[in-house]
Every structure is written in structure tokens, then in C-alpha cells.
Amino acid sequence: MNTTDFETELRATLDAAGRLAPETDNLAERATRPVRRRRGAVAAGAAAFGVLAVAATVAVIGPDRSGQGPIASPQSSPATSSTPSSTASLPYLGPTSTRVAALLGSWRPLDIPGVDKADLAGTNPNFPPVITFTKKGEWTGGDGCNAVAGKYSADDDGTFRGRGGLATLIACKRPGVPHGDVLKAATHFRITGPLLTFTAPNGRTVGTYQRA
Amino acid sequence: MEFDEYVAARGRQLVRLGYVLSGDHYQAEDLAQNALMNAYRHWRRVRRMDDPHAYVRRILVNAHLSAARRGLGREVLAGDVEPDRQVPDLATLLVEHDAMWRALAQLPPRERAVVVLRYYEDLDHTAIAAALEIGVSTARSTLSRALATLRSAHDSALTTGATREHD
């Protein structure tokens, strides 16, 4: 391959890779949220200080006896404060996608109801418990003990149908990850950040995976 | 330019750059978001620069390299790539550009960054040097070395037929 062809192939590969980058919404909001929260916290801190100052003043001076009404109660706060949310914020994983293109690639099991977490790690290094969805409608990988493979179909509305199972029959000390059972039971999928969730018709989660 | 305007114009490009550098969706978003957070904090100064995007890109690239040096990134592509290991989300690449992508996977992080800045971001040696905070001659020699390694690895991948087709 001459230099020009090589560089052309290199550019094409990088360009193709770039097109596989995640679709990310609200970047500006996500980039500014921590700063705005800090500014809100500073304002709230100032408000709290103001409240304490008023309370201290009341404590020192005593209740207003002039008949003009009570001094501002400790419960009031300056109108200019912005109270930050009191709830602990969950980590933002990103937008949820049901695009098939986002399903393509490799996934590692994070949680499968009824399956011991220890069994998700796998014991056979030749077949780590990672499955890969290809654009040809096939899934392959390992269950931590054996090779696994199968077929699937999915649509951009999140519907999913899968089948398949063991491709080898190696005996292992611990059971393999039941990828086939998960995919067979799943009728829908969704992807949020690095997490892939399969659900059954009743909405029950049958398996949660993380990008490998 | 307001910050929101900049993000609307360049945000997607930053995520793509993060992905091409790291090969990881999660890291790509992280790199872009953190670079933008940094830029936002100093936006009054950044917006007055000749090229604000060059500043943000430099932050992103150096954050990626720092993480790679500390081993914090999920460097699934480092060292010998096992034939059965598959790079995340590269089903399409594996079909059409498998050999080149596997070759890129074997480059050290800095060399890969230089290649990406040259052939994905289309930067010249001076701009590459500025982005990586190195000398121009160092950028040039790093790129030359990276291309030699890449060509060798690419030719080797083609010869051994290391693909992931499952027919």
C-alpha cells in the first residue's frame, strides 16, 4: 500500500470512528451545571449567614416591643437568594437511546436478576463474559465459561428479539452468565450512557449491561 | 461568542475527538464535558483568544493523555491486542477498517494522539505541537515514528487476517 493509499485509509478509519461517537445532548448545560450549582451554593451560604445574623440580632436585642411588628423571623431569607436543590443529585449518565446503532458493540453484564454477582465475573479467561452485537444481526462472545453466540433483531423504537446460547460445552466450576436467557426474555432495550438495560413485556428488567 | 454558541458549534466535534482518541463512549463524553467545564470557568478569557477551540481541544487532548498515563482510562487497546478482544462499538469499523483500527489500537497514547490530530483534526505540525504543549520538532518526529509503527502494525494485521467476522 503506497503512502497516499495508506493515509487515505487512515483518514477513512478515523472518520468512520468519529461517526460512532455517542450522540450527546445538553453538553452546554452539563458543562455549566457544576459551576452554577456552586454559585447557587454560595448564594445559599450567604442567605444562611444572613438568617443567622438576624437570629443573633434578635437574640441580642430581644423581641420588638414597639408595637411595630416583629423583627424578621429567623425563617425568612433574603429575596435574592436562590436555594439549591436539597435532594442529592444522581449522577447524570447521559440521554437515553433506543437506537440500534447504539446497541452495536461489546457489553459486560452488570446485574441480572436471580444471578449471583460472583457468577458475572467469569472463570475462563478464554471466554470472558462479554457479548458483542454486530450490525449483521448476530451476537457473539463468552459467558465467562463458554463461547456463546446467537442472532437478534432490534428496531430504533427499542424493540428487541434475541435467541441463541452456548457455542461450546466446557465444564466450569461456576455457571456461566445466562446471556441467552436474558436476550430470549427481553422484548425491549434502552441505553443510558454506558448502561444497556433489557426489559420484558411487563417492564421488568431482565438484565443490565455496561459497555465493555 | 457566547459559551452556548461555542458548544452548539463545536460540542459534537469535541465528543468525536474524545471518542477517536479513547475508543470509549463514556470517556468521550467525559473528556468533552470536562474540557467544556474548564472552558466555561474561564470563558471571559477564553472567548478573547484568537482560537478558543484550540484552547478547549488542548485541554481535552491533554486530559486524555494524563488519564492514560495514570492508567485511569479503560485502555482496552493497550499492548498486545488479543484476537478475541473486541473494541467497543466498532462493528462497522471491524467490517471495513479492521486492520487500520487494530493498528491504531497498538499505538502508545501520545503517538495515537498525534496521529489523530494530524489525520482527523487536520492540524499541521505547529498546531499539533501547541495542542500537546511540545516542540514542533518533537511533534514532527513523534508523528513520523507513529506512522512507521502504524504502517508496520497495519501490514501485519492484514497479513494475519485479524478480523472479527462471524459467519
Name a few traits of the molecule.
heterodimer, A: 212 residues, alpha+beta, nine-stranded antiparallel beta sheet, 4 helices, 9 strands, 30% helix, 23% strand, B: 167 residues, mainly alpha, 9 helices, 70% helix, disordered C terminus
Outline the structure in words.
The complex is a heterodimer of chains A (212) and B (167). With 212 residues, chain A is an alpha+beta fold. Helices cover 30% and strands 23% of the residues of chain A. Chain A has four helices and nine strands, in the order ααβαβββββαβββ. A nine-stranded antiparallel sheet of chain A has the order 1-7-8-9-2-3-4-5-6. In chain A, a hairpin with a 4-residue loop joins strand 3 (131-133) and strand 4. Chain A is globular. Chain A starts with a helix and ends with a strand. Chain B has 167 residues and is mostly helical. Chain B is 70% helix and 0% strand. Chain B has nine helices and no strands. Chain B has helices at residues 3-22, 25-41, 43-46, 52-69, 91-96, 98-105, 109-119, 125-132, 136-160. The model of chain B is unreliable at 73-92 and 162-167 (pLDDT under 50). The interface between A and B is large, with 44 and 52 residues.
Q: Describe the strand arrangement of the main beta sheet of chain A, using strand numbers.
A: 1-7-8-9-2-3-4-5-6
How can the largest sheet of chain A be summarized?
Answer: 9 strands, antiparallel
> In sequence order, what are the helices and strands of chain A, one letter per element?
HHEHEEEEEHEEE
Number of helices of chain B: 9
Level of helix content of chain A?
25-40%
For the largest interface, the chains and their residue counts are: A-B, 44 and 52 residues
What low-confidence regions of chain B span 5 or more consecutive residues with pLDDT below 50? 73-92, 162-167
Output the structural class of chain A: alpha+beta
Q: How much is the average pLDDT of chain B?
A: 81
In N-to-C order, the SSE pattern of chain B is HHHHHHHHH
The overall strand count of chain A is 9
Report helical residue fraction of chain B.
over 70%
Chain oligomer state: heterodimer
Question: Stretches of chain A where pLDDT falls below 50 for ≥5 residues?
Answer: 58-90
Termini gap of chain A: 33 Å
- Kindly report the average pLDDT value of chain A: 74
